[in-house]
Design goal:
With 169 residues, the protein is mostly helical. It is built from eight helices and no strands. It is extended, with a radius of gyration of 23 Å. The termini are far apart. The model has no long low-confidence stretch (mean pLDDT 89).
């Protein structure tokens, strides 16, 4: 009745309500997940590690090789953090991708927050020998690595060729 009697009033969607709904949904998802996973996510349980034999990589220092071995043997998660310029991308991410790629049963998805960070990752992966096939998502203007950019490959390829390239990567 208030809205009908006063034409200056309007109902608009409440974006805060959507955000709250998403937060509560995520919280419910956390509480509904299995206890072990919940304990890991809430840091009430330490991560577990498997016994894995991983050869040292020549381009890594002893300390970085130890970090690589712990990361690859982690059963749940492994966090590598540090200030800029300490080799997280150029050494550690490259080594993780290289080591994981050797296991032909594994698929790898590498994500970053900015286009610049994704380009750094692409540069690191391109230094792996033998070459690791990969594709990069993003717009043409967003990357200097147009040779692996799906949007550029799509413009230059037929649909079956594009499908084969994506399926083979």
């Amino acid at each position: 009745d208030v809205l009908v009697s006063n034409p200056l009033w309007v109902l608009e969607p409440d974006y805060m309500d959507f955000t709250s709904r998403t937060l509560f949904s995520s919280l419910f998802g956390l509480m509904a997940c299995p206890k072990r996973k919940r304990d890991i996510l809430l840091a009430r349980q330490a991560p577990e590690f498997a016994k894995v034999e991983i050869p040292d990589l020549d381009y890594l220092s002893d300390e970085r090789n130890q970090i690589l071995k712990r990361a690859l043997s982690a059963k749940d998660y492994f966090l590598i953090q540090g200030p800029p310029g300490t080799g997280k991308t150029s050494y550690m991410l490259r080594a993780l991708v290289e080591s994981t790629f050797r296991d032909e049963t594994e698929k790898i998805l590498v994500l970053a927050y900015t286009n610049r960070a994704v380009d750094e990752i692409c540069s690191a992966i391109k230094r792996i020998e033998p070459q690791v096939p990969f594709l990069r998502l993003g717009g043409k203007e967003s990357s200097e690595h147009t040779d692996v950019l799906i949007s550029m490959i799509a413009e230059q390829s037929s649909l079956p060729d594009l499908y084969q390239r994506i399926a083979g990567t």
